[in-house]
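Late entry, evening session. Most of the bench is empty. Finally got around to the prediction I had been postponing all week. Sequence below, unchanged from the version circulated by S.P.
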Amino acid sequence: MATSRTRTAKKSVAPSLGAKVPPSAEVTKTGVAVARRIEEEIIGDGWPLGKWLGSEPELIDRYEVSRAAFREAVRLLEFRGVARMRTGPRGGLIVTAPDASVVTRAAASFLDYQHVRAPHLFNARSALELKCIELIGGRMSREQCERLQAIVDAESTYSPAQIAENSDQFHLVLAELAGDPAIELFLRVLTELTGGHSFPAAYDTFDNSNAIYRTCREHRRIATALMSGDVDKASTLMLRHLKWVSDGVATLETGAER
């Protein structure tokens, strides 16, 4: 009877067929190391998009790891947008372009977890937005002017709901025109948070017709000053615009806590 019970107990805790078993600590550690090594090799090779790095059996032999550890490495690489495993006759690991949204979401979640308040976010955002205007300066090309003009023209045709949904696009285009990838990435993080990620209830209240149309008007004034080469005026208008939005959100945030 004891033997029977023992067998029954062992059978009851055995994983069912098809169940996913979490990787062991050693497999995870090895997978992290292999993923880092592959990423470093891709960077050293100039990040050749679309390059075939090898099949799974070839790469397992090359890095001298188990299949479980290699697949953990692939999972990490795919999550980071560094590479992906392609199936089929010519299957294997392929170099891909990283997705900035992965970093944006992670940073936004961390700041949200830290309970960063609206004034702190807007202080950082103001510094970056003013730097964007400084970098753009009075050197906007015809194509850049047309792109910025198209953004403010489109806003003038939007409904209040559409402007509320797309108002960050104006600021993200400015970040792109500044030509600094690091600033563009950080500004994306901040616009995601200040655009309602952390304060959705506040923005639901703040997004009334008067506020929305004021946003549209101020975007146009900033764009006009920038396209005419008046950097000082564009900076002043941007700072005033962001302070107005920051004050409104901070007021609503404070009211929501009472």
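Two things to note before I forget:
The two ends are 65 Å apart (CA to CA).
Residues 16 and 103 are 36 Å apart (CA to CA).
Will write this up properly tomorrow.
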